[in-house]
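User: Quick sanity check before I run a bigger batch. Here is a single chain. Can you write out its predicted 3D structure?
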Amino acid sequence: MHDLGDLPKVRWTPDPASPRAQHAGQVAHVAGAVADAVASALPRSDTLLVLGGDCTIEVGVVAGFARTGLRVGLIYLDAGPDLNVPSSVRLGSWTGWGPHTCSGCRKQPRR
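Assistant: Done. Predicted structure follows.
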């Protein structure tokens, strides 16, 4: 096992300017950094373990695998399924959208 280290930490704060999709650019930036790290680690590893502290970490993991063309299997541990979309949450936090984003489901739930 080789520890490739941590990515820079990003602290979440409220984003009143975008109440339905708070800090979308920041989330995309972090997901891109995770995807870069995953894609660069895959050629030297037959197994990859990614531990994250945010419910959007899997977006970057799946994106990193997609860049290489390899199949990905996820084990997602959380208190809930996090299958939210912007219209289903009042606070607009991306932390509950990761699994839905990776699922390929494009349909929004009815209100």
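The CA atoms of residues 34 and 50 lie 9 Å apart.

User: Great, the batch can go ahead then.
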